[in-house]
Design a protein that fits this description.
single chain, 179 residues, alpha+beta, Nucleoside Triphosphate Pyrophosphohydrolase, 2 domains, 3-stranded antiparallel sheet, 10 strands, elongated, NUDIX_hydrolase_dom
Length: 179
């Protein structure tokens, strides 16, 4: 495979959550082409499952979608030096007032390899415990929490009623593990 070579790269936008990079590439044939990349920190997602095979879902407003979305707890790896599993526990605590004694990596996936470098680490969290309530702000201030059986969650994914990618991947892998 002929891997294109970057001959020029420039940051055309810098925001709080993402930046946009414009790269000019060549395959060595004298022709150039441009690709734009949304540059972002990686993310984590957590399937928090209790002893009764229920998973903890949250519903929060997601601005790009223009509506609230049911999903598993998740968040950006935006603290320098924090390991993915540490971010997963922190996000679980911040979004659900729950922590886990056991956490296991289920998978890592590229969110959309055609336009962003972001990847997501998906964890299964077990042996859950409540922690003191976290002070939430912005869209997280209105997070709703709900426990749902893994079987019901699987059915919602299968019928397209749960469509968030990290949630779909986490539920399907947990269901397939037959825990």
């Amino acid at each position: 495979m002929n891997i294109p070579k970057v001959i020029n790269s420039e940051e055309v936008y810098k925001g709080k959550i993402i930046s946009i990079r414009k790269d000019t590439l060549t395959r060595g044939d004298g022709k150039h082409f441009i690709r734009e990349t949304a540059v972002s920190s990686d993310a984590v997602a957590v399937v928090a499952m209790d002893e009764q095979r229920r998973i903890l879902m949250i519903r929060q407003y997601r601005h790009p979608m223009g509506c609230p979305v049911w999903e598993i707890p998740a968040g950006k790896m935006d603290i320098c030096g924090e390991k993915p599993e540490e971010t997963a526990i922190r996000e679980l605590q911040e979004e659900t007032d729950t922590t886990a004694e056991d956490i296991k990596l289920l998978t890592i996936f590229y969110n959309s390899a055609g336009w962003t470098n972001e990847k997501t680490y998906v964890y299964l969290a077990r042996n859950l415990k409540e922690v003191p309530e976290f002070k939430r702000e912005n869209e997280e201030a209105d997070i709703e929490k709900k426990w749902i059986s893994l079987d019901d969650a699987y059915e919602l994914v299968r019928t397209g009623k749960l469509a968030d990618a990290k949630t779909v991947i986490g539920i399907l892998l947990t269901f397939a593990a037959n825990l």
